[in-house]
Amino acid sequence: MFLILAMMARFSYGHDTATYDVKHYDIHVSVNIDSQSISGYNTMQCLMLKSSNVLHFDLVPSMKVNSVTCKNVPLKFIRKLNKVIVTLETPAKIGEIIPLNIQFSGKPEVAILAPWKGGFDWKKDAQGKDWVGLACESKGASIWLPCKDEWSDEAESMDMYLTVPKTLVGVSNGRLKEVIQAGTETTYHWQVLNPINNYNISINIGDYVLISDTFRGLNTLSLDYYVLSYNKEKAIKHFKEVDTMLRAFETYFGAYPFPEDGYKLVETPYWGMEHQSCVAYGNKYRYNEFGFDFIIVHESGHEWFANSITAADPADLWIHESFTTYSESLFVEYTQGKEKALKYLQSQREKVMNKYPMQGPKHQHYHGWKDNDIYYKGSWVLQTLRYSVNNDSLWFTMLREMGAKFRHQLISSKDMVEFICKRLPGINTAVMHQYLNHASLPVLSVAIKSSRGKMYLEYAWLSDEKNFSLGLTIHTAAGKFTLKPGIGKKRIRVPKGFSIDDVKKLEELTLIKVGVM
Predict the structure, then answer these.
(1) Quick one: what percent of the chain has pLDDT higher than 90?
(2) Which of the 8 DSSP states describes residue 356?
(3) CATH number of domain containing 399
């Protein structure tokens, strides 16, 4: 019961934290690897949206708040589960920026199985040297950092001063601005100039060496790879795939969204994570059966879908994972052709469960998905839309316009659905709601009838959404036959020899079932 109350307290969206908007985080954190503890402070620049003398922020009870000050003036605070409630000396006015400095320390939560069951990941590399990572998407950054732990509010910029043992290297998001040596420790100052979600704030510590390169695409982009020292030569060869990946994604989605902060891969003790401008890589330099490194492609795809276009509520996580999982097939299409991409999609189709809706419940930091349909089913929803529209020029224009319209924005499922429906003819909200809000697939119910020596295919849609319909094209040896979208029973002329099996081929190309009337 305490755990439930603590989660509710941490993620009470739109209530006690609606008083202010976070403009900037100035984070100073020192990591003690031997004791698996951290200490430091975070200065939050809070833009007041309401006049108030009370401010709330988040930090789990296992982490200590040592002090809270504003312009060097100590402030009173109380703790209620995951919430820290601060009283200002005088009420702050609307539009005023309050610099809230929070000193903190403690032993942050240890990852059980990063990145899924996240926290700090304290490991040793193959040479016995310390190797530390952090992943906290599902649990929130407040497991280690005092912050406004809501997806609906991103800091517009960030400075990170990461202090580590001098024998190791500390890597975080953005660009390295300064390295400060002091006795047995080294502080690495990293700076982010773009909006960043709390769970994307990254800490990586290891025996790293730096490999640098340049990508010349729609913009000139710096590429930095922080890899374990003994993997340098392997990484130089393996990470050449990054150039191809970026070129593919810029073709389909538009320019890389964070050129000011650069692109970075950092080798981690866990599989991977889309940490913005600091992508976590732990795939051990392996290719999959389709000849590419899944983690490089998938986690980098999140730079467009998750980091630039961001769900304001985890309930809408399909926006992140569906598009990014679909981006894998586009990478295959870019490098190996459309036929191979379809085979890749079909390998994803085997993992679709259709047991639960992809849309989660709002306003409770939902991360309770029981399967991976927000990944694989979501990818197939996009494949279905593309097949139905049957116009690749329009499809890819829509994806690029999406990247531009929602660049660096927090959006909802409603925003995304409206955008798609306005730009894709024949796709209405009922189509999107069927796939997002219901577990079951739509059924194309068909029958072959004859009348006066002529053959007809009769068809109608059966679905949870009464206004669901899709336009689809059936390809046969005798030609192609178009099923126009619409409600109710319809029919088209077909040649002799046409069979239900011809219609069933649509199950291999779209996310529908074919049934017999």
Answers:
(1) 95
(2) S
(3) 1.10.390.10
